[in-house]
């Protein structure tokens, strides 16, 4: 099981605002070239986003459905990638003072990923998660939606 965490210098509501925008998943989910909401209900349970994965000249389509949603604390998704199978992705937001501890937990459910799940796959997922959480942190911290005027002005200052 690949579990990784990252402290983001914003309140959980600011992190949730990014998670609640299905069109922004390609901005922080590693390997996703584009994403789009399939309906206007994201991230309500049962709502979906579609995504495209691009590897050089090759592209693949997939979709992700919300299985559990408890704003602004928990979002659990099932990513469905056709012949590659499905994966459970759980994102937990824990208040940490004025910041947010984000815990990302992903593991394969069905298909080849589920059958071939091993420590090598987990190691690769750890690398992907490190990059994803870094992108999410950059995105959230750049958009000072929860910051007051003084904090917003100094958010990028040393």
Architecture overview:
The chain has 158 residues and is of the alpha+beta class. The protein is 29% helix and 41% strand. It is built from 5 helices and 7 strands. It has a 7-stranded antiparallel beta sheet. A hairpin with a 3-residue loop joins strand 4 and strand 5 (74-80). Helix 1 (12-19) crosses helix 4. The longest helix is centred in the last third of the chain and has 24 residues, at 119-142. The protein is globular, with a radius of gyration of 16 Å.
Strand arrangement in the largest pleated sheet: 1-7-6-5-4-3-2
Report the mean per-residue pLDDT as an integer: 84
Helix and strand element order? EHHEEEEEEHHH
Alpha-beta content class: alpha+beta
Query: DSSP helix count?
Result: 5
Q: Could you describe the largest sheet, including whether it forms a barrel?
A: 7 strands, antiparallel
Shape: globular
Helix percent reads 25-40%
Radius of gyration: 16 Å
Portion of residues in beta strands equals 35-45%
| Poorly predicted segments | 145-158
- Beginning-to-end CA distance, first to last residue: 36 Å
């Amino acid at each position: 099981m690949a579990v990784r965490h990252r402290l983001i210098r914003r309140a959980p509501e600011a992190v949730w605002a990014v998670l609640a925008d299905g069109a922004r998943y390609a901005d922080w989910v590693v390997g996703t070239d584009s994403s789009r909401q399939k309906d206007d209900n994201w991230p309500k349970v049962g709502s979906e986003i579609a995504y495209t994965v691009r590897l050089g000249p090759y592209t693949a389509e997939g979709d992700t459905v919300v299985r559990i949603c408890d704003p602004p604390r928990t979002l659990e998704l099932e990513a469905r990638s056709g012949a590659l199978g499905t994966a459970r992705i759980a994102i937990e937001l824990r208040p940490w003072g004025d910041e947010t501890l984000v815990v990302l937990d992903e593991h394969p459910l069905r298909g080849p990923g589920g059958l071939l799940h091993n420590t090598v796959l987990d190691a690769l997922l750890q690398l992907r998660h490190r990059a994803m959480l870094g992108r999410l942190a950059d995105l959230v911290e750049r958009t000072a939606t929860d910051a007051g005027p003084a904090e917003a002005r100094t958010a990028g200052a040393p």
